[in-house]
Design a protein that fits this description.
11 helices, alpha/beta, disordered C terminus, disordered N terminus
Length: 340
């Protein structure tokens, strides 16, 4: 595998072992971004570890795109710290981020639909051979490398000459992921890769996200779908209006709680209360905060064998005898006399 980031001897850096989650590859500490007087992001703490999938969820306008642009070097943060391998950095552009092993795969995938798969794989980084001015594309090596890298990710294509536009949406996403991994990505940022895909295609993409994690990459998975996030995620963060509302490990949150935060949480409860004031709206079936029910002990109330305590003033009162079931019936002797 070739890499743009090399050591002093020109060799590619050793891949991080899967599960090695000691020091974060990328870390944000109180990071924020303001555009003039508009604060798009504020006080965000986020850590991306090798061999783990960090899921970032949020509604439209929550700040997810701004977060991606800061990590990928497109925009610079205006507050807080941005660290790569424990060192504070301030990227001048995306190429600086790529040089440190940070790659972003956006929804448009940066592919040319009419070009073959192998050309898209090396788009902008074509391999050449021969001296200048007779230098030409090394087509055979690019095809061979593209096929090997795609197979390493579990993607088997019969014809690399087919236009990338003929592939399914899930396959195009996987080609973009394999390309980023090949060119030395240690941190992979995926911008809603399953947003425009069906259930089956989404499953294909999620499988390759898990494969990237197994190869020791740190993955930032941006999504609207808490179910997709919970399938592959190790840590979850929910953005709301530019701030991190929730940050929890997988062991500390359930799918229901994650869905509740993603759907609005307390805002849904407030909306339910407002709708309850309107006529013709049945709020019983709407989601929201459920009222707490009183706890009921399984043992039941303690019953004393002595019975309830009787006040002293009533203790001397004569107790009325219970009416007998036969009181309303005539005695047997009376009935016999009547017959005679």
């Amino acid at each position: 595998m070739t890499s743009k980031t090399t050591g002093t001897d020109g060799a590619a850096p050793a891949a991080t072992a899967p599960g090695d989650t000691g020091r974060p590859l990328v870390e944000l500490r109180g990071a924020g971004k303001s555009y003039g007087t508009v604060r798009a992001l504020h006080g965000v703490d986020l850590a991306v570890h090798p061999g783990r999938v960090t899921c970032v969820l949020g509604d439209n306008g929550a700040g997810k795109s701004t977060l991606i642009k800061i990590i990928s070097g497109l925009h610079q943060h205006t507050e807080g710290e941005f660290l790569v391998d424990g060192e504070p950095v301030r990227f001048a552009g995306p190429r600086d981020a790529l040089a440190r092993g940070i790659a972003a795969v956006y929804q448009d995938l940066a592919t040319v639909p009419l070009m073959p798969v192998w050309r898209n794989f090396f788009l902008g980084s074509e391999l050449t051979r021969g001296p200048w001015p007779l230098r030409r594309l090394d087509i055979a090596r690019m095809k061979r490398t593209a096929d090997e890298e795609l197979r390493n990710m579990g993607i088997v294509l019969d014809d690399l000459e087919q236009p990338v536009g003929t592939l399914s949406g899930g396959q195009r996403q996987c080609v973009a992921i394999a390309r980023a991994v090949h060119f030395g990505a240690r941190v992979l940022i995926l911008d809603e890769p399953t947003a425009a895909l069906g259930v089956k295609q989404s499953g294909v993409v999620l499988k390759y996200i898990a494969a990237a994690r197994e190869r020791g990459l740190g993955v930032v998975f941006i999504t609207h779908n808490p179910h997709h996030a919970y399938l592959v995620g190790d840590h979850f963060g929910v953005l709301r209006l530019g701030t991190l509302e929730l940050s929890a490990a997988r062991a500390g949150i359930t799918l229901g709680e994650l869905t509740h935060h993603m759907a609005g949480g307390a805002e849904l409860a407030a909306l339910k209360h407002e709708l309850a004031q309107a006529e013709g709206v049945d709020t019983a079936a709407l989601p929201g905060e459920e009222p707490e029910e009183p706890e009921v002990s399984g043992e039941g109330p303690e019953v004393s064998g002595e019975g309830p305590e009787i006040p002293a003033s009533r203790a001397a009162e004569p107790q009325a005898a219970e009416p007998q079931a036969t009181a309303s019936r005539p005695a047997a002797s009376d009935t016999a006399e009547g017959k005679t």
